[in-house]
Design goal:
Pathway: Purine metabolism; purine nucleoside salvage. By secondary structure, this protein is of the alpha/beta class. Helix content is about 30%, strand content about 25%. About 50% of the residues are buried. The structure holds iron/sulfur cluster (SF4). The site of iron/sulfur cluster has 13 residues, from helix 2.
């Protein structure tokens, strides 16, 4: 595996922190064993001595706790690490949380009291401007599967064969899943039995088929599998769906979903009894498709030579396909893939705080004449091997 990742040296156990210590994180060290690592420590690269007093950011500058302004040192160290990264590019960086150099999203507030404020470390900010996906050890930890936290995988039309890779421990009939409609029958290419087990020793729960709004089910019903996965302890959830590629924005084949437009006119949160139990019904849908999981998927695809595009998914009610005017409208909206599932599931998963990866098989061009369900299944068969390698590659890196 040659996915390249920049990682804060202190997370790997190097004694590079201001106090001469380190902050090793087991999950990050495990990731480091599976990828090609570029160790970074912008503070060491700056030439600042170790040990020294701690540093924090205040009003756009960096000060040691004895009052010395070390903004120039931090800039210099960050720039040196950035240049190393440009010589040997990475698409993902795992940096130490809260640090004035490496922190992502939250940093210490300059009072040396442990309080945090929104913001990025000096180095993290530079990486983000370069287009690198920057996360902390907390993200790696939150996405790490275990027996208590298996990875949920929900498979769409023709992609259900992935379920055959599972070493099963237990099977669950969908009819035993709370909120799943008892009357539901699978369409061709689907099976309604979840399998709990492992794929390549990674704990998983595979749902090899789903129901759709266009079959007359409610948004609450079509998201029952997501709530079930959450109830089982799953924190990561992979949605795989068949779509049409919007001409001019995507080609047929495999795709990684980057965002979504919900054009179904439905929202599972508006129909769900459990809404009162979530922290807030006003769910943040920024980065609904986890940038960390997307970047891992991209890295795996590149590493294995699997052709994959990326783009925004639009979910429509269906079941008819799109008119030429609708295809033109989708293109104008910036949509690459259009399908009849997934959007409500992603809303539910985000409401439950789950990490989402969206993968699609664009089986046809949106708006192409005479697309049948059989066409979708045939295309799925054609890409089955690549899809399987992609999912297994992602699982191995989590
Ligand atoms: S947080 Fe970043 S700069 Fe600070 S010791 Fe760790 S790697 Fe070095």
């Amino acid at each position: 595996m040659t996915v390249r990742v920049a990682i804060s040296a202190c997370l790997l156990g190097a004694p590079v922190r201001y106090d001469g210590g380190s902050k090793p994180a087991d999950e990050v060290r495990e990731l480091a064993r599976k990828v090609d690592v570029l160790r970074v420590c912008p503070e060491t690269a700056s030439g600042l001595p170790v040990p020294r007093p701690p540093a924090e950011q205040r009003e756009g500058r960096v000060f040691l706790s004895d009052g010395r302004d070390v903004t120039g040192d931090f800039e210099r160290g960050a720039q040196r690490c950035l240049e190393a990264l440009r010589r040997s590019p990475v698409s993902l960086a795992v940096l130490k949380a809260k640090s004035p150099s490496c922190g992502v999203g939250l940093v210490y507030d300059g009072t040396y009291s442990g309080k945090l404020v929104p913001g990025d470390g000096v180095f993290a900010e530079k990486l983000e401007k370069e287009g690198v996906c920057v996360v902390t050890e907390d993200t790696v930890r939150a996405c790490k599967p275990s027996v208590e936290h298996p990875v949920a995988i929900v498979l769409g039309s023709g992609l259900g064969h992935l379920g055959s890779l599972v070493r099963p421990v237990r099977r669950i009939d969908y009819r035993d899943i709370d909120g799943f409609p008892l009357s539901a029958r699978p369409v061709a290419g689907h099976r309604f039995e979840a399998t709990i087990g492992t794929i390549d020793d990674v704990p998983v729960v595979v749902y090899p088929g789903r129901i759709h709004l266009y079959q007359g089910y409610s948004a609450a019903e079509v998201t029952a599998l997501v709530r079930h996965a959450h109830h089982l302890g799953c924190r990561d959830i992979v949605f795989a769906c068949a779509t049409g590629a919007v001409p001019g924005r995507a080609h047929t084949g495999l795709g990684i979903l980057t965002d979504q437009v919900n054009l179904t006119g439905r929202n599972p949160l508006a129909e769900w009894d459990g809404l009162r139990d979530v922290e807030s019904p006003f769910v943040d849908m920024n980065d609904a498709y986890s940038p960390y999981l997307r970047t891992i998927a991209r890295g795996v695809a590149d590493d294995l030579g699997i052709a994959v595009e990326e783009g925004v998914y639009a979910g429509v009610l269906g079941p008819c396909f799109e008119t030429p005017a609708e295809v033109a409208a989708l293109r104008t909206l910036g949509v690459s893939y259009v399908g009849m599932s997934t959007v409500c599931e992603v809303v539910m998963a985000r409401a439950l705080g789950m990490n989402v990866l969206g993968l699609t098989l664009a089986a046809n061009e949106s708006g192409a004449p005479a697309v049948s369900h059989e066409t979708v299944l045939a295309a799925a068969g054609e890409h089955a091997d690549d899809f399987e390698r992609l999912v297994r590659g992602v699982l191995r890196l989590l």
